[in-house]
Amino acid sequence: MKTLLQHVYDHERDRADRTWLTQPMGSGMLREFTWKEALHEARRMASYLRDRGYPPGSRIAILSKNCAWWFLADLAIWMAGHVSVPIYPTLSADSVAAILDHSEARLVFVGKIDQFGAMEPGIPRTVERVAFPLSPEGAGTPWDAVVASCEPLTGRPDRHPDDLATIMYTSGSTGMPKGVMHSFRTMDHSRVICALARLTAEDRFISYLPLAHVAERALLECTCFLVGFSVWFVERLETFVQDVQRARPTVFGSVPRLWMQFQAGVFAKVPERKLSRLLRLPVIGWLVRRKVLAGLGLAHVRVAFYGSAPSPAELIAWYRRLGLELVEIYGMTEGWAYSHMGIVGRLRPGWVGPPVPGVEQRLTSDGEVLVKTPGLMLGYFRAADLTREMIDDEGWLHTGDRGEIDDAGRLRITGRVKELFKTSKGKYVAPAPIENRLLADPRVEQACVSGAGLPQPYAIVVLSRAAHQDGAVDLALAALRERVNAAVDPHERLQLIVVAEEPWTVENGLLTPTLKLKRSAIEMRYEGMAEAWYRTGATVVRAAR
């Protein structure tokens, strides 16, 4: 088989002078890399890594936000015969130290990081450092200096398909992340996504979801290596919309939370009822759709993805009225995100879709989703016992997700096996479906349902920006609680809704780097308060600061 490196060499040869990567440099400045320029730098960095004398297959870490040099470092590591180890640029120093120690990393590339001073103590002095352009001052030996001092590797240095290519440490909601090992062969299954999404070299992507996560790695970086499309990078959070507008992506993927924030931003400019009325008008509706999508930077998008969490059916229907069909993708780091994908024309709101080609699915007696996938990991690095717990003797990957399968073979995720909790009445509650009903309301940006050991569950919510300015929001939340309770079983009905005092973020430890709830951390934040909330007799309360 032709490896990812061989595809990249083909693009270097066939598209030498075509712009590949566009990197914001600050103050409105951009740096563009052609395929020839990019590979010239990667080859020089590969020469530097090879000259360090590390044993073949040594682990080299990348600690950076998304940027052009992230791609180049990944390629250089592979060309030099080594293994890349991405690290989220939002982790604590202790987590960085644990990953570098566990992976036995020889060198770390340091790039764009907001809080490097807090993370730097996690990098041992025994680990060499090379600093990308735009990295904090003093982060390591400058990339440009290394590139200028080394001759490039020549030819087409390749790797065997079954060589270990990368170790991806899962973000996890609790405990020490596990190192998921993938080979060039398992990573090659990104090609099926290319076929299903009909990706071509003419497509345009914008890279902003963390490259340390399998979604951005499998669905953007590796598909880019295979197909050769152009990639733009985001400068910073404050310029996100302008960056998207500049990139004019034809394919765009995100998590449900961002799709909801886009919608909330539109409603902040045009009230929901007025927008709905305009969209129903024959000619004006078309113009309004184009204007809304253009304002979001999505006017050229032909394929829109979401994943990481379920999306409310109402949100999907709203984007459909704008002419944008949101397609859900489901997968795990352990399976190279190669599992399930919705099919336009056969989408069912609330359901992911069928398995992608080559994947089998089944449910256990307690509803856990099992998959067999050709993208299956080689195992967990230095953790054979954990590997055996995850993959059974028949090769089924135990996802830990609970689900349902309809007559068309479409999968619906209903929660996590271990997220079930029992009320004091002895009834089990699955929080995810209730949370999805709450998130269907535009006033609610985040939601967490809890209540173990209590007579009835309760919900903690984070309000959208617009909801904070609504003087009647408590009445609206009380009505939302009534609507949710009317749609669920009696033992699942919410006693009350609690309004959180601050958003849940990666920085305050309540979200994972991929924006999933750290359920245990959220519950710990409000531990011991529930009984007092219940005693008030109110249906909506405010959490104490």
Describe the overall structure.
The chain is an alpha/beta fold and 545 residues long. The protein contains 20 helices and 26 strands. The protein has four domains: 4-235, Rossmann fold (3-Layer(aba) Sandwich); 256-299 and 301-330, no CATH class; 334-417, Luciferase, Domain 3 (Luciferase, domain 3, Roll); 420-542, 2-Layer Sandwich (GMP Synthetase, Chain A, domain 3), CATH 3.30.300. The strands form seven sheets. It has a five-stranded parallel sheet with strand order 4-3-5-6-7, with helices on both faces. The protein starts with a helix and ends with a strand. The mean pLDDT is 92.
Quick one: CATH class of the largest domain? Alpha Beta
In round numbers, the mean pLDDT is 92
CATH topology of the largest domain: Rossmann fold
Largest sheet: 5 strands, parallel
Tell me the strand order in the biggest sheet: 4-3-5-6-7
Tell me the distance between the termini: 58 Å
Rough shape? Answer: globular
Number of strands: 26
Q: What proportion strand?
A: 15-25%
